Amino acid sequence: MSNYISRSLPRVDGAMHIAYVSLGLDDAHDLQALMGRSSSGESLIISCNDISSEAENALLKIFEEPGRGIDIYFVHPYPTSLFPTFQSRFIPIAGTENSVLHDLIKTFVMGDGKTKAGIVKDLGDKPSDETLTLLAGMEHLFYKDGIDKRARELRAILDCKRRILTGMSPKVAFAHLAVVL
Domains in the chain: how many in total? Predict the structure, then answer.
């Protein structure tokens, strides 16, 4: 099952825009097929809050050689957390890192119980791009420390993400995550 938000988002200056909550391997294969059908002069904007390592690897070749006259724009809240080989396929655009969001993530991860409770209180009851981006940012922060060192935290973040995507209130899911972290 694909996790895309919408394939029918408005075109941005003539470019097709596909937005994903979490871009997985099946989504990457769908994108490969789409790129195979694209023609010269087309532009594609792909945005996601999270991307699996399998999807990054699957997309390397088409992002390296997208086809003659096809432009691809990839939007991610933490582009520096992507594999270096994946990053090398793109030209970064200044200002892509969100420092306010980054500070909020660090505050949640490093903060005491009272600080975390204050952040949880401000979250909505419905999943939003912000809640999923917070989780993706936390995940990437812990990945940088190493999977072996941060396996417990990474499992807790993945569990929180699953709970939110299956209907749990972000406030409840983040409250549980706050206890684990």
Answer: 2
